[in-house]
Amino acid sequence: MANSEGSREILQACLVLGLLALINVVRCDNYPDFQSRRSLIGETIFDVTKFGAKGDGITDDAMAIIKAWRAACTTVGAAKVLIPRGDFVAGEVVMAGPCTAQKPITIEIQGNLLAYDDMSVYTRGAWIMIEKVDGLVVTGGGTINGRGKEVWQYFTKGSPPLPVSLILQSVQNVKMYNLNLVDSMGFHSKVTDSTNVAISNMKITAPGKSPNTDGCHMSSSRNINITDTVIGTGDDCISIGHGNYNILVARVTCGPGHGLSIGSLGKRPNETSMKGVTITNCTLVGTTNGARIKTYHASPQIEASSIYFQDIVMDRVKNPIIIDQHYDSKRKREPSKVKISDVHFRNIRGTSISAVSISLNCSSTFPCQGIELSNIDLQPIAPIGPLRSSCSNARFFVTGKINPTAPASCV
Fold it and tell me: Model pTM?
């Protein structure tokens, strides 16, 4: 009997010690309101609803999202910010680093994020800004809805740009995939001053007549990949601006929209040169431009080089292949000083709705150099008649078969 009682006492003591150890591991003392929890893989989950988010489609949940981010960013160990299913309205949200959490932090958007309808809350040109973070995954299958239909009517040419739905600024080692971006006020997404960013399996949509709703714009960044993505907007599906290096765009479907564009380049005096862009295995459907390079008149003297448009299908596209160095020429007479060189248009086929399907319209100050036209087969959509090409101030060479016939020498 004594041995039995002794065994019970030992068992009870072991249970108490085990419970104390469990409490110590969970560290409830750090989170008295149980605002975070551990997942099965050991990461701490920071659910925005535990920080006050309502997800009712009415309440501004921006501060709750920011609080959840701050808690995740400043923790130790693996961390995930969770936006669960629901309709989360939010004004301006800034998620800033640097962070102490184990890399990468995850932002998992399962529900719908809806932009707040009071434009006065957006003070930095962005709805959602992620900045100064090294190591991040943004995913979840949810939707980021800019509700642009409520504000596009206020956008006029020359007015300040409307807020970008999502900006990645001064970040590195970021993966963003499996999300929907819908009806941005301004651009849908922007990557700037960043390194090693991979964007894939996204769906970005807005009406074809929505103003300035580029799918993704990049500037002053390097090692950026955009792959396996569907984009249809009212402006460029992808626009690659100044200061970029080593950019890959692959397996992107574009349309409606203004095409896959290098530029615009040279609009601002502090812009820098860009080099190394490959746009490959893409399909454009019903766009107003196809493979395009565009620069402004009266630009700073910068360069754009080592650019490859290859293995591209055009379906009822206007201006399938175009270099246009005469942006804003009505207001500024001085030619563009952007030097374009080492550009390759290879294996491009499909249909054109414009009679001039290849247009190389370069700068008289710095004519284009080393432009390759290789294995191009474009067919007209009736009733425009036979296709033709045009050229001004460009040194180009032809390899393989070309339809329409390449332009005559034009330098």
Answer: 0.90
